[in-house]
């Protein structure tokens, strides 16, 4: 009989968060789409998204402070990724290079539990 290592299950504060699972439940993504997106660079993906938004708005995005909005949009995307990828808030804060106190402020600011569809109070 060979020895088989048991997989440790970790039940941290962020184990219920998964951006991919959220998008799959909302039928916004499929495996095929994810493969196609993984072949694009981040710049291509953002440019494509802006072009699609421009087309649906009649060809122009006037009145939108796009240049000033980019840092906030990317910060929120990075925050959602960190929450999804890490097991604990402390680990997510280290990934982002911020303090846990600041991470908790961002957690409330972006209404993370509501975004991921959870109604749990996870303190760590």
What does this structure look like?
There is one protein chain. With 124 residues, the protein is an all-alpha fold. The protein has one domain. It contains seven helices and no strands. The protein has helices at 19-25, 31-38, 42-56, 66-85, 89-96, 100-109, 112-115. Helix 4 crosses helix 5 (89-96) and helix 5 (89-96) crosses helix 6 (100-109). It is globular and about 60 Å long. It starts with 18 loop residues before the first helix and ends in a 9-residue tail after the last helix.
How do you describe this structure in short?
The protein has one domain.
Net shape = globular
Fraction of residues in helices? 55-70%
CA-atom Rg in angstroms? 18 Å
Distance between the termini: 41 Å
Q: Work out the helix count.
A: 7
Instruction: Work out the oligomeric state of the chains in this entry.
Output: single chain
Biggest β-sheet description:
none
- Runs in which pLDDT lies below 50 for 5 or more consecutive residues are none
Tell me the number of strands: 0
Tell me the strand percentage band: under 5%
Report the order of strands and helices.
Answer: HHHHHHH
Average pLDDT over all residues: 84
Counting structural domains, the number is 1
Structural classification: mainly alpha
